[in-house]
Specification:
single chain, 102 residues, alpha+beta
């Protein structure tokens, strides 16, 4: 399972678990094979949390409170891009990278 950026295309290829963003040691990924509510995964130090895009809240897993706060801040800024990527994932289309939290 590997994700990579197509040169000049500004899209992420490889379909299993594309990484769409990375900041402060947090990796944000969206899986193609999952359905249900629109969501994304945040991984940090061996822990994983699943966040709802619609509600912008942790719906599964455990992460440190500071990491949750950073992920929520980032997702609030990029909610529309997350939803676009969710629609692309459901359609099995390449995902677009989302800028990191600064």
């Amino acid at each position: 399972m590997q994700a990579f950026l197509d040169e000049g295309a500004d899209i992420i290829s490889q379909v299993d678990m594309p990484e769409i963003s990375r900041f402060f040691g947090i990796v944000i990924a969206m899986y193609y094979k999952e359905h249900g509510v629109p969501h994304f995964h945040a991984k940090y130090a061996g822990q994983t949390g699943v966040f709802s895009i619609v509600d912008l809240k942790l719906i599964e897993g455990r992460l440190p409170k500071r990491v949750i706060a950073l992920v929520l801040e980032w997702s609030f800024e990029h909610r529309s891009e997350l939803m676009e990527n969710w629609q692309r994932a459901v359609a099995q289309e390449p995902l677009r990278p989302i800028p990191a939290l600064e």
